[in-house]
Design goal:
The chain is an alpha+beta fold and 557 residues long. It contains 18 helices and 13 strands. Helix 2 packs across helix 5 and helix 13 runs antiparallel to helix 15. The longest helix is centred in the C-terminal third of the chain and has 28 residues. The N and C termini lie far apart (125 Å).
């Protein structure tokens, strides 16, 4: 089947979702989502009467970006599969593996930070919030985004995508193809290059490029190609394993049986429409109330020209009763409209999480965790859906691209398992930290710190606390063996210092003075002998203390 034909078939199912997305875009960010048309309609953008919707979308998208791809930290961890290597690993081996994994994680995050993925993803997240759908294509060099009006999908009964068709308008020069070989004798009526297309404002050098991707269940691979003028572009066929597919169709909210998602704005579309009408009425009413008009009685002697031409402070003839000022007595109506608008704004602010003001200069790990907790409480299982449809395939594809480009060593998938530590998993780590700290505090307050330290293992506590915060403890926390060795070394050092101190005190005693003990001089000259080595050396001390003479035989007089 032709890609153009399949696109038109699936576009029929997409129509109601696209219509709602366009309405949501007009009330928030009008430029974001448009109908599936070309031409001047793209330029007819009307600014909403209120800015609450735009502020809410941008704020919620920024918080989602902070939770999915947090800066200055990694959103995944590489862990050894204990079921493959065994649960009992040598500490040295595991430490070396953790160090290697930490280096790989840093390389991956450096690659992501240097790329334009965050910029493209932020645009996709805004489309998710407004329209509920977005499509990402992870090419070998960069990431590409498709809005809802430029792609269609087909899902099976379980919600898995089995078909994707995209439509782009590309210049012939940019396409870089020998189009005469692809063209037929008569131009296709759907082609913008055709005079029969009836699409004004289009360049005749532009052509529609369709990309048709389909899942081959038997082979477990995605297969796709591109078509121009209903002809397959030479060299455009590509394949990829299902687990590392470059095609990432994303949804914000899902409904069973629907091929497309629903956005956050759709859930509050009624409030946005009401606020739009109230804002328009208040602005127009305020403008009318601010207009100053003077009325002059037709039968009065005061002439309107006199009042109109009079300068400020001028003295003219007339009666005050002949002139009146038009006043709009709508203060009560304005007050009612303003109160209702304020109530709606508060509801929308709570829905799009714009009540919480960030006052920190740098993004901390605790702020990221609190943001993730806030999003999870407000948006339900959004993280679970984005983890399955974005984070996991995004990470797998990124690792594959880096391995193929020789920027990373090949990771054995059967031994190493990547684990997402953003979203719900990050929330779990935060709750583990909170529970652990609360437990230690309760134990200390109950039995006292002296007794608590007898039952608790400080090393294990520090390791669990670091794991809850996602901190690598390699060469950071000392083991029990290292602490014992340091204790022994300190004891030996103290003993050595004591012996040195005692030796210094002994050297200052009269016994070691050569003027008072001649034997010391003989010992320094090397003439001292002890013919009876079995006798203790302290006999010399005893002889000297009695003032006797020491003979060659070593006897004491």
């Amino acid at each position: 089947m032709l890609a153009r034909t399949r696109y038109q078939q699936l576009a029929t199912i997409r129509t109601p979702f696209l219509d709602i997305a366009v309405q949501a875009s007009l009330l928030t960010l009008p430029y974001l989502i448009k109908q599936d048309t070309y031409g001047p309609n793209w330029k007819n953008i009307k600014t909403p009467w209120q800015s609450v919707g735009a502020k809410g979308v941008v704020n919620l998208a920024s918080k989602l970006m902070l939770a999915l791809l947090p800066p200055q930290t990694t959103f995944f961890k590489l862990q050894v599969r204990d079921d493959k290597l065994g649960e009992e690993l040598e500490p040295i081996v595991r430490s070396e593996l953790d160090l290697s994994f930490s280096k790989i994680e840093k390389l991956v995050m450096q690659y992501i930070d240097a790329s334009s993925d965050r910029v493209v993803l932020h645009e996709a997240v805004k489309n998710l919030v407004v329209g509920g759908n977005a499509l990402l294509y992870m090419g070998p060099k960069n990431m590409k985004f498709f809005p809802l009006n430029r792609f269609v999908v087909n899902r099976d009964g379980d919600g898995n995508v089995i078909e994707i068709v995209t439509k782009e308008l590309i210049s012939k020069e940019v396409l870089g193809l020998d189009l005469p070989e692809l063209e037929t004798k008569e131009p296709r009526p759907n082609s913008p290059a055709s005079p029969k297309s009836g699409l004004p404002g289009l360049d005749e050098d532009d052509v529609e490029v369709y990309t048709y991707a389909k899942l081959d269940e038997k082979a477990g691979r995605w297969v796709w190609h591109q078509e121009v003028l209903d002809k397959i572009v030479p060299g455009s066929r590509s394949t990829a394993p299902k687990s590392v597919s470059p095609w990432l169709p994303l949804r914000f909210n899902t409904v069973d049986g629907e091929d497309y998602g629903r956005g956050r704005v759709e859930e509050f579309l009624g409030d946005l429409k009401s606020l739009e009408a109230l804002s328009k009425a208040l602005v127009e009413g305020s403008a009318a109330a601010a207009k100053v008009i003077f009325l002059v009685s037709p039968s009065s002697t005061t002439k309107p020209q006199t009042i109109a031409q009079a300068d400020n402070g001028a003295i003219v003839q007339g009666r005050p009763d002949d002139v009146a000022v038009v006043q709009v007595a709508k203060q009560a109506d304005f007050s009612t409209a303003m109160n209702m608008a304020e109530r709606i704004e508060r509801r929308l602010a709570d829905a799009f999480l714009i009540l919480q003001v960030r006052d920190s200069e740098r993004t901390s790990a605790e702020e990221v965790r609190l943001t993730q907790l806030e999003l999870e409480q407000q948006l339900g299982g959004l993280f679970g859906l984005l983890t399955v449809e974005f984070l996991v395939p995004y990470l797998n594809r990124t690792l594959l691209v880096l391995e193929r480009s020789k920027q990373l060593p090949k990771i054995p998938k059967d031994l190493v398992r990547p684990q997402i530590v953003a979203g719900v998993n990050a929330l779990g780590r935060g709750e583990d930290e909170k529970s652990l700290t609360q437990f230690i505090t309760t134990i200390t307050q109950t039995v006292g710190p002296e007794i608590a330290i007898q039952y608790l293992n400080p090393e294990e506590y520090l390791r669990r606390l670091a794991a809850a915060q996602g901190i690598d403890t390699l060469n950071l926390i000392k083991t029990k063996q290292q602490m014992d060795e340091e204790m022994q070394a300190q004891q030996q050092s103290a003993m050595t210092q004591d012996l040195t101190k005692q030796a210094g005190q002994l050297s200052k005693s009269p016994l070691m003075d050569p003027t008072k003990n001649p034997a010391v001089m003989n010992m320094m000259d090397g003439n001292s002998e002890n013919p009876n080595p079995t006798e203790p050396a302290n006999q010399i001390t005893a002889g000297a203390s009695t003032g006797g003479n020491i003979e060659a035989g070593g006897t004491v007089d």
